[in-house]
Amino acid sequence: MKLLVAFLLAVLGCSLSEGRIVTKCELRDQLVRETANLTDSQKVLTGSNFPAPAPPQPNNTWKLYGLFQLGDKVACNGTSPSANICGTSCSDLLNDDVTDDINCLLKIVTNPPLGLIFQNECKDKQDASYFADCP
Q1: Is the pLDDT higher at 122 or at 89?
Q2: Strand-strand pairing, 62-65 and 70-71
Q3: How far apart are CA 23 and CA 77, in angstroms?
Q4: How buried is residue 118: exposed, middle or buried, by Cβ count under 10 Å (0-12/13-18/19+)?
Q5: Distance of CA 34 to the CA centre of its chain
Q6: What's the total number of domains in the chain?
Q7: What is the value of pTM for the model shown?
């Protein structure tokens, strides 16, 4: 629960992104359209660094892209060798269309070896409490 509160505070307090700010409720609506199960969608959010829409930032060896700050070594094709699980260019994750970001994140968390990374972090998360303030 504290993690979710921290996410909400970050959404309200962070205005350093180059793209538009996507609210939690807007994202919920988009996730519902893109996925059949809202509980899984919320777990996807928890497993990602949402909300963190920002330009790519170097962190020694990785550059992070898009709404969910997906790494160029795994998610997309950037300037360095990548597994490119999402089959997309990293620059495609920087636009205002969150559909490709959501689809990419879903590919990562539903990939058996990669999905295990999020297992402990997400297993007890409930969408009802996370999205409770959304109409």
Answers
A1: 89
A2: antiparallel
A3: 27
A4: middle
A5: 13
A6: 1
A7: 0.61
